[in-house]
Fold this sequence. Notes:
Helix 3 runs antiparallel to helix 10. The longest helix is centred in the first third of the chain and has 25 residues, at 3-27. The chain is built from ten helices and 13 strands. Strands 1, 5, 6, 7, 8, 9, 10, 11, 12 and 13 form a ten-stranded mixed β-sheet that branches. The protein has a three-stranded antiparallel β-sheet with strand order 2-3-4, covered by helices on one side. It has 277 residues and is an alpha/beta fold. The radius of gyration is 22 Å and the shape is globular. Strand 2 and strand 3 (52-54) form a beta hairpin.
Amino acid sequence: xxxxxxxxxxxxxxxxxxxxTFSVAAYADRLADIKARGTLxxxxxxxxxxxxxxxxxxxxxxxxxxxxxxxxxxxxxxxLEQKGVSVEARIPELTLGRVDLVIAAxxxxxxxxxxxxxxxxxxxxxxKLIAHTESGFTKIDDLSTKRISANKGSTPELYxxxxxxxxxxxxxxxxxxxxxxxxxxxxxxxxxxxxSGVRFVNESNGKxxxxxxxxxxxxxxxxxxxxxxxxxxxxxxxxxxLEKSGQNDAIWNKWFGVGTKYNIPREKKLTPISAFQ
Length: 277
């Protein structure tokens, strides 16, 4: 048998396989798969009011992000399949292809943008510190060497570590657990977005307060798996139409706006992601 011939033949087969593999990868199109399926699998949190939480009356997951998932699916001509995820599972679920879109209080950071693509930013929220009212702390700098709790894998955790490298940041699986650590004096402050933290402050009868100053101003977008330009363009197109029609404002006002217990106007409108890169 001619070993030289076999070697060349095997090399040709290897080239063909590699070429085929790269061709499949090049033409992989999540948006086409979604359209063929007819359903948008959209991930939200399930224990973070008001973005995604269980309604005690209906036992259904409701909230701002759930409504945004529904609006996006409708705008894209698809049915919605809502899927619950934890804070730390948001990016893995997306990169593993288990969900199409993540709308789960997903703050943009350079670190996350290396793992997934972000849509245009649809709102921006201050990240604050919450402390006992009688603690004596008045501003966030008072906590620079103290113990701070946060959701594991969240942007409040990231910004607390970045701003206060000498502080001890303890992380927990969800917001209620992070708050419980503050209530039990295991930490001196809780890092949280203003939208999530308002509930704990307002329902405390004055026992807790936001400290003066912010850790960061968090741009929040929707997550799409990397290298899916058609899907990302479709998501951004749907967001632009929702913005022009006023639906983005309407959904925001329903959950966060003036007259709700959060009382936060949506001051910053839809902004291209390029403004933050």
